[in-house]
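FORM 7B: Structural annotation worksheet

SECTION A. Query
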Amino acid sequence: MEKSCFECGEPIHGRTDKKFCSDMCRNSYNNRLNSDCNNLVRNVNNMLRKNRRLLEECIECNSNKMAKNKLAAKGFNFLFYTGSLTTRKAVTYYFCYDLGYFVMDKDSIYIVKKKDYVILPQELMIENE
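SECTION B. Predicted structure
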C-alpha cells in the first residue's frame, strides 16, 4: 500500500512514517494549518510592542506623568498589556513587558519601568497575572 503526501497527494517514497513528499509540501501544509492562529498572535504582539514603544517614548522624554487621552491619541490601547500587579494599597500597575503604568486619577497615568533586580515583597502583592 503506497502512501500519499498530505499536501499535494503525490506518492511518497522512502521511509514508512513519512507524511510529505518534500520539505516544500511539509512547510506549505504547516503554514496553512497555523495561518489563522499566527495572524491573531501577530496582531496582538504588534499592539503590545506599540504600547511598549509609546511608554518608552514618554520615559525618554522624562515625562512619567501623562494624560490618558494624549497617550490614546498616539495609538495606545489600554486593553492590551502583558501583566498586572495590584499592591496592598489597591494600586494596580499594568505592564507591557518591562514598562508599565498606573492610573493616578481618571485623566492621568504615571509610567514606571520594572527593574529586574527589584523584587517586591510578597505581602505587597495581591494578584500577579
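SECTION C. Observations
The mean pLDDT is 84. The CA atoms of residues 78 and 88 lie 23 Å apart.

SECTION D. Sign-off
Analyst initials: ____
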